[in-house]
Specification:
Helix content: 55-70%
Mean pLDDT: 76
Shape: rod-shaped
Order of helices and strands: HHHHHH
Strand content: under 5%
Amino acid sequence: MEEDSTSINGGPRFCVALFQSGCSNVMLCSSQEKCAKSGLNRANVKLHGCTGSRSNIAAAYAEDDMEALLTRPVQEGELEKTCTEIVSQVLPKSSTFLRNVGLQQTVATPNSIPPQMRELRAQLEAEKEESAGLWQKLQRLEAQAEESEAKSQKQAEEIDILKKATVDTQNLVQQMIAFGQSQATHQTTP
């Protein structure tokens, strides 16, 4: 059996060595099974290489910088930074790590937005402002309607009070007239 001189570790040379050593499970070395396993492993990767990679030294320096920023005393009038802000400050601006793990949202640059999208956004903003203006106008009109309804109810109550006072006054006048007539009849009959 001749070995392939161009194969790498795990290729035909490795299979031949396993066969010669008495390994009965030589079928595990087939390249098809390796490809299938690699495919399954790639499917399980959550954060691919696009998240960025760097050397261990760079990672250690970045970690030291983050710890220094975290332990730094807060200046007067300054808010304490969150962990996400510290990580985003230490990582280079081209890093996509925070976006890939979902801690930072992507911000589209104005040049990357198509003109039609910008026009639609401008129209949407204009409609929102118009809607807000109409909403305020509606609120004012509702307040005025409630105020005028309260005034008309108050006036109706005042009218009822005046009607009762008028009825009472008329009754009093009639009683006075009746009393005056009874007095006049008593004086004429002696």
